[in-house]
Design brief:
Helices cover 45% and strands 15% of the residues. By secondary structure, it is of the alpha+beta class. The protein folds into 2 domains: 71 residues, no CATH class; 62 residues, no CATH class. Strands 1-2-3-4 form a 4-stranded antiparallel beta sheet, with no helix packed on it. Strand 2 and strand 3 form a beta hairpin. The relative contact order is 0.10. The chain binds zinc ion. Zinc ion (ZN) binds next to loops. The site of zinc ion has 7 residues, from loops.
């Protein structure tokens, strides 16, 4: 729940920033002059305006993409960035052990396995929570006593 709330909050911030940019853009951009007493929408009639709107669209898509990319590599439990990428598998045996990268939460909440093969069947990232990694170590110590 915390994970998705954080993502929704990021999208809300992006939406707010884009709305401010959009309003600022329209406050600065001059009104088009009517052509034969008909006021036209400048989009697709004014090259500068159309290019600016297209660049704005690209910036908006880029910001959402960066939010998605950032969210993908966050811990599902504590929202910290996942660290310590570890390469597994290999390109010489793609069918049996495809190349992938594993990330881990610095606080030990879980691991994320990301496929390095972009053309593999739907790209899946596999989050695996670690229940209690310290309990296993404590059990080992208690059995040695
Ligand atoms: Zn974590």
């Amino acid at each position: 729940m915390k994970y998705w709330s954080y993502f929704i909050a990021k999208l809300a911030v992006i939406y707010g920033m884009l709305a401010l940019i959009w309003k600022g853009f329209h406050a600065v951009w001059p009104e088009p002059e009517p052509f034969m007493r008909v006021k036209q929408d400048p989009f697709a009639h004014d090259l500068g305006y159309t290019l600016a709107v297209l660049v704005f669209g690209l910036v908006a898509v880029g910001m959402v993409y960066l939010a998605l990319l950032d969210q993908r590599y966050r811990c599902r439990a504590c929202l910290r960035r996942l660290r310590m990428p570890l390469s597994r598998g290999g390109w010489n045996h793609v069918l049996l052990g495809p190349p992938r990268t594993e990330y881990i939460c610095p606080w030990g909440h879980g691991t994320l396995r990301v496929s390095d093969v972009p053309f593999a069947s739907p790209e899946r990232s596999d989050w695996r929570p670690i229940n209690d990694m310290w309990k296993e170590l404590e059990d080992l110590q208690e059995t040695r006593k």
